Amino acid sequence: MTSSRTVRVGSSHGLHARPAKLFAQAAKEAGIPVTIAKDAGKAVNAASILSVISLGIDFGDHVVLTADGDDAEHVLDMLTELLTTDHDEDA
């Protein structure tokens, strides 16, 4: 089952190295294919930190997450929470 969701990025400095690493690690551990795209751009593998950073996602940008598998909704819930949290507050 494929599910997708549009999410507004909450990290005040966007998806730079640390939040991108947290996000990519969680996507990888999800065990199902997950992609992320900035606005209407090309979707990339969400488990690849380099691909995620290459999108140049900033605070307030909208991204589209797509997950394909039996647990897709749960995975999207978890990844949405990561993206909407400001990981730069305590940095």
UniProtKB/TrEMBL annotation:
Residues annotated as transmembrane: none
UniProt-listed GO biological process terms: phosphoenolpyruvate-dependent sugar phosphotransferase system
Keyword Amino-acid biosynthesis appears in the UniProt entry: no
Top-level taxonomic group: Bacteria
Gene3D superfamilies tied to this protein: HPr-like (3.30.1340.10)
UniProt keyword annotations, A-Z: Cytoplasm, Phosphotransferase system
Listed GO CC annotations: cytoplasm
Primary location class: cytoplasm
UniProt xrefs under InterPro entries: HPr (IPR050399), HPr-like (IPR000032), HPr-like_sf (IPR035895)
Keyword RNA-binding: no
Subcellular location: Cytoplasm
Residues annotated as domain HPr: 2-90
PANTHER family found in the cross-reference section: PHOSPHOCARRIER PROTEIN HPR (PTHR33705), PHOSPHOCARRIER PROTEIN NPR (PTHR33705:SF2)
Name assigned to this protein: HPr family phosphocarrier protein
